[in-house]
Amino acid sequence: MGFAVFIEPEGELRTNILKWKKMIEAKFPNQSYCSHPPHSTLIYVNIKQEEMALVAVGKALGGLPAFNNKIVEADVFWNDSATGGGHTLYWKIQSNQILFDLQRQVAESLYPFLSSNPEPTFVKNAPLLKNSFDRYGSPFIGNHWIPHLTIASLKTGQNDPLIEEFLEQSCEFELDVTEVSCWRVENDQHNCLEKYILYETS
């Protein structure tokens, strides 16, 4: 069973992401990720014992504070191997240790519940990704992770006007991380199972 832990954007940032998904769907229907809810993935793995995994994530998040972050730029993963060579448009989130610590604690809490995760071909010759995959069942756990909010992955030319327009946006978005959500994922179907509120420090 696919199991994902997300940070979900609110306010203007969420509105922007939904606007771009709608524009892309109108011009290029059925692109990878376009139908997914707006989110940043902390981890995506296959698990067993979903109920127990949810409890473990809740415990891992129990002592963690809410925090403010921001978006640093609109960017693209060119020729994204995870989508078979599509160009993945995303908002890049400012990296910081709070975010990396949050991700690692969630990943460690899920470790006992991992089930058969086939190793992606793109990790074989990438030691950082392979080490992360072997340890956590996901290649992107650790300081090599690029925190981001995906719009969609386009099977188009790199110089498509829609990509250029996306990259030209100014980014003045805040990302307030006040809760973390757990989802059951089957292909493009996403079902929210639980939301965990992070405690407010002020």
Describe the structure.
The chain is of the alpha+beta class and 202 residues long. The protein is built from 5 helices and 8 strands, in the order βαβαββααβαβββ. A hairpin with a 2-residue loop joins strand 7 and strand 8 (189-197). The radius of gyration is 17 Å and the shape is globular.
The low-confidence runs, each spanning 5 or more residues with pLDDT under 50, are none
Strand count, sense and closure of the main sheet? 4 strands, antiparallel
Q: What percent of the residues sit in helical stretches (DSSP H or I)?
A: 25-40%
Indicate the overall shape.
globular
Task: Kindly report the average pLDDT value.
Answer: 93
In total, how many beta strands? 8
N-C termini distance: 38 Å
The fraction of residues in strands falls at 25-35%
Q: So how many helices? A: 5
> What are the secondary-structure elements, in order, as H or E?
EHEHEEHHEHEEE
Notable characteristics:
4-stranded antiparallel β-sheet; 202 residues; single chain
In short:
The chain is α+β, with helices and mostly antiparallel strands and 202 residues long. It has helices at residues 11-27, 50-61, 97-110, 127-136, 161-167, and strands at residues 2-7, 40-46, 67-80, 86-93, 148-154, 174-177, 179-186, 189-197.
Give the topology.
Layout: E1 2-7, H1 11-27, E2 40-46, H2 50-61, E3 67-80, E4 86-93, H3 97-110, H4 127-136, E5 148-154, H5 161-167, E6 174-177, E7 179-186, E8 189-197
Antiparallel strand pairs: 1-2, 1-7, 3-4, 3-6, 4-5, 7-8
